Amino acid sequence: xxxxxxxxxxxxxxxxxxxxxxxxDCLRSIADxxxxxxxxxxxxxSRSEEVRRWVAAxxxxxxxxxxxxxxxxxxxxxxxxxxxxxxxxxxxxxxxDCRVSATWLxxxxxxxxxxxxxxxxxxxxxxxxxxxxxxxxxxxxxxxTRPRLNGDDLFPPNMAFPRSIxxxxxxxxxxxxxxxxxxxxxxxxxxxxAGIPIVYEPSSVVSHVAWQPASDLPAIYRRYARGQxxxxxxxxxxxxxxxxxxxxxxxxxxxxLLLRGVLSANRELLALAYGEITGLLPGVLAGLRNSGRAVxxxxxxxxxx
Length: 305
What we know:
The protein is α/β, with parallel strands linked by helices.
């Protein structure tokens, strides 16, 4: 069996990147996996010549890989540009600071091919000694059919779905208030509200590389809280009472986290509390300016294969 024989015909993998060196190992992990996608699309907001070479090297190995330069900013924008280019029934997404396991794509496909219209997400393990705020280690499969008051269920460095879902709920929101975080939770919320379940499949595994020092945790959590607040503000503008309850819960939780962090001298709790206290309300105010205009699919013309 040749390497190309590992390729399936029904899934495209999209990777948004800002050109970090981490991408090289991410690409290598996809090339070394048991299954190759029909196509790999790397949306490169750095327009890096080095990224172009890395993608071209995979193409030379037989993996159909495309370098898609983009002058935009924001992870939603980059992800959307890749999704717009996909032509397969299914799409999977990971990020440039992740390493996929050998069975990652095969595990996602096993769920996707069941015939149910659902978003599949999976396990996210930490790798390295720095700050890794997104870690998901639950050992058992779970199906979520409605939004939860105390959390969100989609992990964008490890997700896949039928492309037909985009016709029902649209693309990721590219509003500037969601540019750094929150776009995934907004999209997942819209999916659940539309009756599309989110399935957690623990056999689909990626490792999230700790490239940020632990000292950056307060700033990271603040950025996440601003993005979450922007997601909330967008739906508050529409009079969403469920989201109003979530905002109230999070605002009440922040001082409780601070108290727990002070009493236990837990730096991560203190960082989380700082992030929510300083980031959530500014994010809500920014999100209130989001009209929620739908993203219209478009095609990039500057494509290098």
